[in-house]
Amino acid sequence: MFDRRFVQYFDWGLLGLILLIGLLGLVTLYSAVTSATPTPQKTLYFKQMIWYCAGMTGMVFSFSINYKSLYRWSLAIYAVCILLLIYVLIMGKYIGGARRWLILGPVSIQPSELIKIAVIISLARYYSKHANPRGFTLSELLTPFMLTIIPFMLIVKQPDLGTAMVLVLIAGAMTVFVKIERRSLLCIITVCTITGPLVWFLLKGYQKKRILTFINPDRDPLGAGYHIIQSKIAIGSGMIFGKGFLKGTQNALSFLPEQHTDFIFSVLAEEWGFVGSVFILFLFLVLIIWGLNIAYKCRDPFGTILAVGATAMIFWQVFINVGMAMGLMPIVGVTLPFISYGGSSIVSIMICVGLLMSISMRRFLFE
Amino acid sequence: MGKYLKTSDTDWYKQRLIKVMICVAGAFFILLLRLFYLQVIQGQELRRLSENNCIRLQSTDPSRGMIFDRNGTLLVDNRPAFDLSIILKDAKPVDRTIEKLAKLIDVPVSELMKKLKHGKGVSSYKPILLKQDIGRDALAAVEVQKFDLPGIVVNVKARRHYINRQSAAHLIGYLSEINSDELKSGKYPECKGGDFIGKFGVEKVFEPFLKGKRGGRQVEVNVMGQVVKVLKTVDAQPGQNIYLTIDHILQEKAEALLEDVAGAVVAMDPETGNILVMASSPSFDQNAFVDGMSHKQWRSLISNPLRPMANKAIQGEYPPASTFKIITAIAGLEEGVIDGNTTMHCPGYYKYGNRIYRCWRRGGHGSVNILKALSQSCDVFFYQVGQKLGVDKLAFYAKACGLGSATGINLENEAGGLIPTASWKKRRTGIAWQGGETLSVAIGQSYDLATPLQMLVLTSALANGGTRYKPLILKSVKTADGDIVIQNKRQVIDKLPASKKTLAIVKKGLWEVVHNPKGTGRIAYIKGIDISGKTGTAQVVGRKNNPDLSEKDLPDHFKAHAWFVAYAPSVDPQIAVAVLVEHGEHGSSAAAPIAREIIRTYLEKDKYNGA
User: Fold this and answer.
1) In 3-state terms, what secondary structure has residue B55?
2) Architecture of the domain whose range is B248-282+311-475+489-608
């Protein structure tokens, strides 16, 4: 089964890129978990290394299978992930006010991370099968809509707004990529602009308040608004060259909430300054362009759309996470790929990268 | 080319991918601009704010709702207390600051150091509590020396204040500091260590109304940790005020009457179920719980044999004794075992099998009908009624009258009492029911157990013509501005299992208890107030083991419990009362006078209400 061409055509550049980002992530995480008083959570750091290994395994697995066979398996993968989501809603462990985790022995996983990949594969299958230059009409978009809305509702129910939002954005990006037919697009926009205010009118007072706070964290100065201020102070105080490794003070005082997951970018920006932040953003940009280039070079529609989807997932998470830390976006729990702490997030991102590698490598292999 | 795109060789995808790449580059450019703005343009200012972690969050506690009685008399409020805390990061050098402070407030340094050690692991930017509720003098001293005490913060905190020491302590309950188990339980998501929560009684049950909502403010502090600027404020929302159904004056009267004894008094309005009095003796000082109690104080409270921490009105289970004869009478009349005219002979004892069951009156009551049996509490009459009914019929009526299960009052740990049946005993002990036991059960002894509240609900139902109302303690809930949030409504539990005719006979019997010169409750008679009632004397040790021992010779803790249940006026009743005095010997002598005084005070309330 092993083919020498695997070595020859393997996307070494992509591997090097994610190893570099991953390494920077570990360094940042080390700072985030060690200088956090009162109790350094060093175990988190070692756990994260183990998760990287698990992620690597997931990556090797996903690039070693031929992505074309995913075309056939997409429905089964999707169904399994949906079942896991339903299971977690009923039986999942309740942590921090949400049912997201599925406990499998010593590890806990979030099916909501896996469903993102399942949706990407299913949409890639549907869109590649029906793609045409005039774009998709409303009736043709019904299936993709259903494929997205079902897991979306299940994730909102957990509740995990961040992941649900990312899921919709990925699906949206893929749909826009394969083009929406002009009249259908107009129709969608009109319906949205009309129903938006109508729905707003129907919402109850406290629901409106929650949405307004979500959009503008300043309305909640004791919660999200305070987090945003602290995060902005942390980032800004890094100035041009940063305070240096382990010298971040905002982080050290555990003023930043969730500094090892959602707000890890603040830690990074404080310690490495503008120079370091631009560097890491640049690496992410290269990674994303690299993924799009794989789509560009791929010769079959399924592979192209799959690569676009996988890249969209990385893009949105980077954009939302960094934007949130800088106060550009509402505060939602979205992880920064390769850098935030979190097993399921690492594994799902690595699987995405594996898919990209698989597509990249197989453009040379003819059947 | 067909309708569908088959391969990506077409330039179509490639063109679109170029556009996607441009969009991505644009998005990253936005991030870059923002980063530049924060780190380069605003960098200096944000660095300054970060140096001392100037922006901090301070929470403001809501004021807890107050508690009033039915007439709006304030029972519980909040008073200001001054707490001292230290913020380590600002308090450099810590040792010298602590020493200075110790001198000022006259507390040994070691005690403050102990608190510091306790607070280890807390972020150095978070205040550690040093001393709660320092007096006004100490406060003045600290305020004057403020600039020599870096990092020392004085917080004004509202403290719960129970105005009438020990009054209605069991009903109102108390607040105390949340403990770590409660914090971990997840039942108090908004609480943090050091918060006070309701732990007992009304304070606990109505916590959601009383607690209010925490507020806070974002502040900028200087190097000394002092606030220089308030950035944003969210006001705390005060808790809602609670109006109880109890009457404060009547409550204090009941407590005065119970002063030297252990026992309980409960009273309610028979037409609504509103509890007017709920007193349990001995009581405890609720303020001691708020101030923090030493281990020793706590131990002495819970090891006191008179059980001051138990609300005997709802938790105390006692044999209902002769008050149970109300039920035996109802059962006998309803089942046709007796009627209004049935007479029996009481020679002072009743022979069942080869055992002698005594009447409380050695000489006997002679010829007895139901009225005389109730008013003079003839045991022999009810032995025979009970024997004819059988234990399970008796149990059926007792349960239908509300005994054997909790009344459902909105307080924790209400006891349900016990009503035995033949199958219950078989299940419980493995021994079959003995016929003789039925005789004891018929006069409320043996396994029968009831709480004063259960007997009160039964008495009220009798008084109002047969409806059992759920006992209520909450009259209304109002916002701090006085808007009504909740107004209570009477709730029917069910009807007594008795016809109008039966009720009329039993009520006549109870009237005679007080009005007949030979009635056992004659002592409760007051001219001008028409009281009906029933006495009860619950034996603690069986009389059969030492039949010749007179009650007077028994040691105190073997003396019988005294019961009296009553309502007044007999027609159109306004109040029902149940009194239990532990080891009070006779219902007539120990309990009836208390019930009488409660009724008198309540019916003459216009006098004290300033008419």
Assistant:
1) strand
2) 3-Layer(aba) Sandwich (3.40)
